[in-house]
Amino acid sequence: MKIKMLAVAFATVLTSSFCSAQANQSAVIEDFKPSTCNQPGQMYPQVNSQGYARFRVIAPNAQSIVVSLGLGGAKGGTPLAKAEDGSWMGTTAGPMDEGFHYYHLTIDGGVFNDPGAMNYYGSTRWESGIEIPAHDKDFYALKDVPHGNVQQILFPSKSTNTSRRAFVYTPAGYDKNTKTKYPVLYLQHGWGEDETAWSNQGHANLIMDNLIAEGKIKPFIIVMTYGMTNDAKPGTIGSFSYVPFQTVLVDELIPYVDANFRTIANKENRAMAGLSMGGMETHAITLARPDVFSYYALLSGGTYNPAELKGKANPKLIFISCGSRENPDMVKKAAVTLKEAGYNAVSFVSENTAHEFLTWRRSLKEVAPLLFK
């Protein structure tokens, strides 16, 4: 059931944000500003207060340019019109969902990134990104508060015969409070992404900084590593095996982190969470190794049921979430069923979002205060 649900989620990722028709200009407020995801000094793409996006590309010899949104490139898109100066411009036919979106340009049949936008790893390639300001963006905004540190580590992996990469968030004060030890959240990305996603697209570090500064959470470490998800090609998710990643995570990464960071190295102070396919990994690994984690969180990544937990695991928390445009009834019902069976289960539904990063940013904001109580 989980694999089926995830397959449906992947098929519907971000498909409603762009339309093929051009915008009715009379309905569009002309208060466009450069996207916060733009390359330094670049004026396009731009977004306005309604959530419309406007693109401009210089390509005098091109015959056709379409802006395509979504993992792998959704069908349709926003066609750009050519001007006399060789530039191409177009505005989305309607407002886009709030939050972060991947996109790319299809120029005369070839796929290219927008030279005006920064790139983010998603859909198994570096894609352009655009941010539609959210009404609740304050919780992941860059503020004048003490900031933690996100550092890259390379850890040995005998099972894959290489050194693997992870990113570790340590909260503000970690380097000064040299006697303090911290709980750890192992936080996984989704299919087609990598270990950079939660920091770059998800702003996990800023979410943590703000929550800590507001006194809403107990400071903890976050570890983000590559989940081997790209080994599953589109359409083959059902054949994906979590077992190799379980070995990397449990037998190699966790011991390395415990040896090199000031962690509270026990099950009671260790959590695992993941978005989408990272949730699928979280589900499988927490059930297979209930001795490792005490807090479980699936973000648009399926649900747990009492039967699969009985006799295997007794977590301190089960958190399940999704966007309101995904399958909120299933998430809510699963939490109720788990509560009735005696588990501490919490559900969260992100309003007016689908299978996208604003859903997962909000989910991290909601689950973080519940961890390590």
- Topology, number of strands: 19
Shape descriptor reads globular
Distance between the termini: 31 Å
Largest sheet: 8 strands, mixed
Domains, number: 2
Q: Would you list the SSEs in sequence order as H and E?
A: HEEEEEEEEEEEEEEHHEHEHEHEHEH
Give me the CATH fold name of the largest domain: Rossmann fold
Radius of gyration: 21 Å
In terms of DSSP E residues, the strand content is 25-35%
- CATH architectural name of the largest domain: 3-Layer(aba) Sandwich
Text of the CATH class of the largest domain: Alpha Beta
Question: Looking at this structure, what is the CATH superfamily of the largest domain?
Answer: Alpha/Beta hydrolase fold, catalytic domain
Q: List low-pLDDT spans.
A: 1-23, 71-75
Organism: Paludibacter jiangxiensis
Keywords: Signal
Pfam families: Esterase
Protein name: Enterochelin esterase
Task: Give the helices and strands, then pairings.
Blueprint lengths: L1 H10 L21 E2 L11 E2 L5 E6 L6 E5 L8 E2 L1 E2 L4 E5 L7 E9 L2 E3 L6 E4 L2 E8 L16 E9 L4 E9 L13 E5 L8 H4 L3 H10 L7 E5 L17 H18 L9 E6 L1 H12 L6 E5 L6 H4 L7 E7 L4 H13 L4 E6 L6 H11 L6
Parallel strand pairs: 14-15, 14-16, 16-17, 17-18, 18-19
Antiparallel strand pairs: 1-2, 2-3, 3-7, 4-5, 4-8, 6-7, 8-9, 8-11, 10-11, 12-13, 13-15
Pfam family, one: Esterase
Keywords: Signal
Protein name: Enterochelin esterase
